[in-house]
Write a structure and sequence with these properties.
GO molecular function: acetoacetyl-CoA hydrolase activity; acetyl-CoA hydrolase activity; carboxylic ester hydrolase activity; choloyl-CoA hydrolase activity; fatty acyl-CoA hydrolase activity; hydroxymethylglutaryl-CoA hydrolase activity; succinyl-CoA hydrolase activity
Oligomer: single chain
CATH topology: Porin
Number of helices: 6
CATH superfamily: Acyl-CoA thioesterase, double hotdog domain
Structural class: alpha+beta
Keywords: Fatty acid metabolism, Hydrolase, Lipid metabolism, Peroxisome, Peroxisome biogenesis, Serine esterase
Strand content: 25-35%
Helix content: 10-25%
CATH class: Mainly Beta
Protein name: Acyl-coenzyme A thioesterase 8
Largest sheet: 12 strands, antiparallel
Order of helices and strands: HHEEHEEEEHHEEHEEEE
Enzyme class: hydrolase
Strand order of the largest sheet: 1-2-4-5-6-3-9-12-11-10-8-7
Number of domains: 1
Subunit structure: Homodimer.
Length: about 325
């Protein structure tokens, strides 16, 4: 591999049109300091489940942890557990514990609290930059650039115009279209209605934060990526089962991320997702965020609870 590049070198511009600051920075990840290592976070987008979006909690927790370390060290990994459902009607308090501050690595523990009880716990590890000749990575998949693909809103509109679209899909797509999600998505090889029955548990899409973030602090781009990484991630495990089962409960259990190279979260990145296993009312998903120049920037993994309604048999009709 070549020598490390800055995010701007590797992602070649691609700023969203206009100079509107990303709401992810100005609102979602803008925590209110209450005391030393104590912060309050508020909500921007709430899913139709009326539970807090897991990516928001992960991103805000990482913001809180990053405020307790010096500017010259960067996050390299985080490991989280969602222990209770979040309440969208009240803010979240983030309590940071400075577990260890070392010469090369520092660890921070973060607890997210609502109604006096933890809803989420996280360990984040930070590292001072340490160049090494030992480097390798896999190759980025070959895919069309985002400029050649339909945006999510246009794609959904095309699906909704199909007179053969089943009502259950129409309802779900209308819900998605009505959501004000602060990220942009362009699917790679979106499935047609006839392909829904034969899908593999894999998907790829280009993704970036809406609005402008700029060069800024690399740690902030990592916090935005933490928010982005949870969107549509666990649903990868559902792709082979859309036609056989109806999901009535799906939530994240844990979430891990490893940060490999600097990047800009307001520039297009390829999110490659796959689910190698599902069973026992759980699903496992893995993901990789690639810069446009082929550099692997972030790796992710998550397991979640997936409960489906029992199939309707002929004897029950």
């Amino acid at each position: 591999m070549s020598s490390p590049q800055t995010p701007e070198d590797g992602q070649g511009g691609g700023d969203p049109p206009g100079d509107l600051r990303s709401v992810l920075v100005t609102s979602v990840l803008n925590l209110e300091p209450l005391d030393e290592d104590l912060f309050r976070g508020r909500h921007y987008w709430i899913p139709t489940t009326q539970r807090l979006f897991g990516g928001q909690i992960v991103g805000q927790a990482l913001v809180a942890a990053a405020k307790s370390v010096s500017e010259d060290i960067q996050v390299h990994s985080l490991h989280c557990y969602f222990v209770r459902a979040g309440d969208p009607k009240v803010p979240v308090l983030y309590q940071v514990e400075r577990t260890r501050t070392g010469a090369s690595f520092s660890v921070r523990s973060v607890k997210a609290v609502q109604h006096g009880r933890p809803i989420f716990i996280c360990q984040a590890s930070f590292q001072k930059t340490q160049p090494s000749p030992l480097q390798h990575q896999f190759s980025m998949p070959s895919v069309p650039p985002p400029e050649e693909l339909l945006d999510y809103e246009t794609l959904i509109d095309q699906y909704l115009r199909d007179p053969n679209l089943q009502e259950k899909y129409r309802v779900g797509l209308n819900r998605i279209a009505a959501q004000d999600v602060p990220i942009e998505i362009k699917l790679i090889n979106p499935s047609s209605l006839s392909q829904l029955q034969n899908m593999e548990p894999k998907q790829m899409f280009w993704v970036r934060a809406k609005g402008y973030i700029g060069e800024g602090d690399i740690k902030m781009h990592c916090c935005v990526a933490a928010y982005i990484s949870d969107y549509a991630f666990l649903s990868t495990a559902l792709l082979p089962h859309h036609c056989q089962h109806k999901v009535h409960f799906m939530v994240s259990l844990d979430h891990s991320m490893w940060f490999h190279a600097p990047f800009r979260a307001d520039h297009w990145m390829l999110y490659e997702c796959e689910s190698p296993w599902a069973g026992g009312s759980r699903g496992l998903v893995r993901g990789q965020l690639w810069r446009r120049d082929g550099v692997l920037a972030v790796s992710c993994a998550q397991e979640g609870v997936i409960r489906v309604k029992p199939p309707v048999t002929e004897s029950r009709l």
